Amino acid sequence: MMSDIAKDRMAHSVRKRRSVSSLSGREFRQKELHGYTKNSTSTVSYMDEPSQWDDASCLTVQMENTYQLGPTKHFPVVIVNHILKDILTNYLQEEQYEPELCRQMTKTISEVIKTQVKDLMIPRYKLIVIVHIGQLNSQSILIGSRCLWDPKSDTFSSYVFRNSSLFALASVYAVYFEAQAEGAAEGEREALAC
């Protein structure tokens, strides 16, 4: 009987090591022989179990381009404003400011907002939800945000809630996401791994 340590050592020694270069073998040898190093090469190295890779797993997947440069359905700012108003009012109408409670409420309210906006099923939009809750005590606060985006397709929605002891600001940023570009990049990474 082999011990577990011996089995692990044997399995480790059986693992395959592979390396894929961006140059063909002939181009790489020419650069080595002539000392020509102007262009750079990239190499991807990895190690895996022998049974994990076979010829079928190295097939590349070709993704069809949709040629869709913008959203077919724009982000519904007015509907999201109503969602923000309803959630903030329902959760905070009777609440008093307590730091620990408000800390937990920001997380809860953010998740509820994100879930309800995702339920609208708006395709190809990434959502960022931020909720601020603070004490209302004769002070002022300035909350700012900056984003790099395309004003034709990206947008945001926000709502401010106040009661006698606290204020809350909820913002939802909707950034258009081209899904096919992501799928193509994943396909390229898989091709490099083979």
Write the layout of secondary structure elements.
Layout: H1 4-14, E1 16-21, H2 25-34, E2 43-48, H3 77-92, H4 99-118, E3 125-135, E4 155-162, E5 166-176, H5 179-193
Antiparallel strand pairs: 1-2, 3-5, 4-5
Helix pairs in contact: 3-4
Instruction: Record the strand order, biggest sheet.
Output: 3-5-4
> How large is the share of residues in beta strands?
15-25%
- Structural shape: extended
Biggest β-sheet description: 3 strands, antiparallel
Count all strands and give the number: 5
Query: Helical percent range?
Result: 25-40%
How would you classify the helix and strand content by structural class? alpha+beta
The average pLDDT is: 75
Number of helices: 5
Distance between the termini: 36 Å
Radius of gyration, taken over Cα atoms and rounded to an integer in Å: 27 Å
Could you explain the architecture of this structure?
37% of the residues lie in helices and 22% in strands. The model is unreliable at 16-26, 31-38 and 180-194 (pLDDT under 50). α3 packs antiparallel against α4 (99-118). It is α+β, with helices and mostly antiparallel strands and 194 residues long.
Short recap of the structure:
The chain has helices at 4-14, 25-34, 77-92, 99-118, 179-193, and strands at 16-21, 43-48, 125-135, 155-162, 166-176. The chain is α+β, with helices and mostly antiparallel strands and 194 residues long.
Summarize this structure as a short list of keywords or feature phrases.
alpha+beta, disordered C terminus, 37% helix, two-stranded antiparallel ribbon, 22% strand, extended, 5 helices, 194 residues
